[in-house]
Amino acid sequence: MSEVQEATQLQPIDSSAQQIHKSTHRRNNKDKWTVGRILSHIVLFIVSLTIIVPSIWVLVASFKQQSEFYGSPWTWPKGLFFQNYVDAFIDSGIGQSFLTSVIVTATAMVISMCVALPCSYALARYDFPGKKILQLAVQGLLFVNVNYIVVPIFLLLIGADQVIRQFLPSGFFIDNIFILALVYGATSLPFTIYLLEDFFAAIPKEYEEAAMIDGASLGRTMVQIFFPLAKPAISMAMLFNFLSYWNDYVISMTLLTGDRETVQVGMLNLMSTAHSATNYGRLYAGMVIVAIPVIIFYIIVQKKLLQVSTGGGIK
């Protein structure tokens, strides 16, 4: 009896000791994670400041009159001088360049997605002869920087213009915004196909089986089931492609040799004009105008980037 009593008396002590040890271990882990989170938040805060402060400074400077730039650069404007935006958009030609970039970017995105979506779906969900070769080709083209091949592309288009010169004296392939959009869309296909293929391959086969039971065709399964499930990946591909098209300078400057120019080439001309005429308010207003479409497009697609793609799909 004494041994049983001693054992029953030791059990609460042992259990309390284990609880103390577990609580101490949890407290130490909590303290460790708290320190890590604090450090990560500090780093993120510093990085955010390096982006937010210059952006706010450009926005504030875009409303200043010319005389206000000769004082302290950190002073707030005396008023909202919207004439800078009018001068940048109309007088400096940014409005025409803006419209050209919108048309080229939208056309290139349509071309890219119309080709990449069915191609990536076929590579991810079906087996056919030559599939491995196509996948290796797509992966290999990821390492080709389009800026390195812009001269061969230009010479190729020049040669095509010489062939059709007898039918079209003014040419067709050079200084054509739709040919520029075609080049944008074609050169972005490797990245877009690779991104979407990886996403399509991760979708369970139960979706296809459920569609087959319901009598859906292959095309309907692709369009009505897989494309909606791939909205996060599609949004990500569209965002990266949009930034690539909108911020391009080298390709557009090479292929558009006439009066038409994209917004990045127009910004370079505006910077040259602003520095020679010391009109900095117009320059900063042009920077804000160029950044507005990027911000708007990110706001549109950012919700799709965070969606759970397969939640509730089988149901």
From TrEMBL:
The chain crosses the membrane at residues 38-60, 98-124, 136-157, 177-196, 283-301. It is a multi-pass membrane protein. The keyword Signal does not apply. GO terms for biological process: transmembrane transport. Keywords: Cell membrane, Membrane, Transmembrane, Transmembrane helix, Transport. It comes from the Bacteria. GO terms for cellular component: plasma membrane. The keyword DNA repair does not apply. Its main location: membrane. It is found in: Cell membrane. InterPro entries: BP-dep_ABC_trans_perm (IPR050901), MetI-like (IPR000515), MetI-like_sf (IPR035906). Residues 98-301 form the ABC transmembrane type-1 domain. Belongs to the binding-protein-dependent transport system permease family. This is Carbohydrate ABC transporter permease.
